[in-house]
Structures are given as structure tokens and as C-alpha cells.
Write a structure and sequence with these properties.
Elements: E1 3-8, H1 15-26, E2 30-32, H2 33-41, H3 46-57, H4 63-74, E3 82-86, H5 92-105, E4 108-115, H6 118-126, E5 128-130, E6 137-139, H7 167-190, E7 194-198, H8 203-214
The chain binds adenosine monophosphate (AMP).
Adenosine monophosphate binds at residues 11, 33-34, 37, 54-55, 58-61, 66, 87-88, 90, 94, 164, 173.
Length: 216
């Protein structure tokens, strides 16, 4: 049966990196609500004005809008064989909507928690850098590029640091995760659909376990 793979974890746990690897290697579309909102934020629309303060401060975007974006994206043809969600669901209302969507679309759902201790998360976030061309994720502490501040594959591109990856906002985002998103882990656990992976290792070791979990 086709699957929705939900990658879960606190901000900075490395969900995005694992989601990108799963997409490449399992050939399933990766849907990151954070990436979609960051792209929408760059448009000159009233929606961008609404999103900018929320994303800059690391506050959650309202459920109604988030749900609409996910519903539209997952209705596209490339999602018929299943897909990977990175950063969704984050609230109970979103998780409830996803139950309905999975049933409608005929997919099973499996959640994989990338588990990282709290003292590591802040460094993961403040050290994070992205390539503006291909989206590759680096970290100045854990996974630096070959040459300072530029992508290994796009040397013309200076890496960017997300506005919400500063120390203050990073702490708020972890708190939001604890309050709004952690209850979802219990929900997936009690329904037998949660797999936990130790995320405090190198990327490939984590990936091996994520892939095993996805195939379990
Ligand atoms: P991320 O890249 O997943 O860390 O998301 C970046 C930001 O996008 C978050 O801090 C929120 O402001 C917003 N966002 C992403 N996904 C969601 C979601 N499922 N629900 C509400 N807001 C979201």
C-alpha cells in the first residue's frame, strides 16, 4: 500500500535533511510546509505580508491556511504513489485533517521521529545554512561546506542563513514544538504508527535507520 511518511522532530533535528535523502533515494515527493511558506513569503501578495511576521518569529501559521496548502499540493499527480511530509502536521487539528486526507487518498501513514537531545538542537539551528539554488542543507558545526559559505555544487551561490535560525527564535520554536506538536507523537505511538530513530549521529547512519523504519 502507498504511504504517507511523516517526518517528525523538533526544529533542528534534521528532518529536512532526511526528507531530502528519502526523496532522492525512494523517489517520492518531499513536501515541506516550511519551504512552501518561505517561497510564498517572497511573492508580492497580501499572503506574503501575513506570513512574514509569523515565519520570522517562528510562530505557527494558522491551521486553516496550512491545511489548504497541504491539501492542494498533495492532490497533484506526483503524490499518487505516496509522499513525504516534512514539518506537517504540527498541531492536533492538522493531524486530524491528515487522517481524513490519508483515507480519502488511500494511503497508509507512518510517522518517523528523528530524536535529538535538546542541547544539540540550538547548535543545529544556529549553524544551519542553505544553498539558495538547490536547497542543500549545511551546518557550520556539523556538516560544513568544502569552502566557507558557498555550496559544494553551486560555488557561485553564497549560502543563506534562515532569519528564524537565530538563538532566541530557535528557543521559541522548540517551545512551540513541545507544546503543540509533541502530543502528536503520543497519538501516532498509541495507534502503532510511530518509529523512533536516534538523530544524534551522522547523516548516513540516521538515514539507514529512517529507511528501515519506512520499510517496516
Ligand atoms: P520549518 O522549515 O519546518 O522549520 O518551518 C518554518 C516555519 O514555517 C515555522 O516556524 C512556521 O512559522 C511555518 N510552518 C511550517 N510548517 C508549519 C505547519 N505545519 N503549521 C504551522 N506553521 C508551519
Amino acid at each position: 500500500m502507498s504511504k504517507i511518511i511523516v517526518l517528525m522532530g523538533a526544529p533542528g533535528a534534521g528532518k529536512g535533511t532526511q526528507a531530502r535523502l528519502l526523496q532522492e533515494r525512494l523517489r517520492l515527493p518531499q513536501i515541506s510546509t516550511g519551504d512552501m511558506f518561505r517561497a510564498l513569503m517572497k511573492t508580492e501578495t497580501p499572503l506574503a505580508e501575513e506570513l512574514r511576521p509569523l515565519l520570522t518569529l517562528g510562530r505557527l501559521v494558522p491551521d486553516e491556511l496550512t491545511i489548504r496548502v497541504v491539501r492542494e499540493r498533495t492532490a497533484q499527480a506526483d503524490c499518487r504513489g505516496g509522499y513525504i511530509l516534512d514539518g506537517f502536521p504540527r498541531t492536533t487539528a492538522q493531524a486530524e485533517m491528515l487522517e481524513g486526507l490519508a483515507a480519502e487518498q488511500g494511503h497508509a501513514l507512518l510517522a518517523v521521529l528523528v530524536d535529538v537531545p535538546y542541547d544539540v538542537l540550538e547548535k543545529r539551528m544556529t549553524g544551519r545554512r542553505n544553498c539558495p539554488v538547490c536547497g542543500e542543507i549545511y551546518n557550520v558545526y556539523f556538516k560544513p561546506p568544502a569552502h566557507d559559505e558557498v555550496c559544494d555544487l553551486h560555488p557561485e551561490a553564497k549560502l543563506v542563513h534562515r532569519a528564524d535560525d537565530n538563538a532566541d527564535t530557535a528557543r521559541d520554536r522548540v517551545e512551540t514544538f513541545e507544546r503543540d506538536t509533541r502530543p502528536l507523537l503520543d497519538f501516532y505511538e498509541t495507534t502503532g504508527r510511530l518509529r523512533r530513530v536516534d538523530g544524534n549521529r551522522d547523516v548516513e547512519a540516521i538515514y539507514a535507520d529512517v529507511e528501515k523504519a519506512v520499510n517496516s
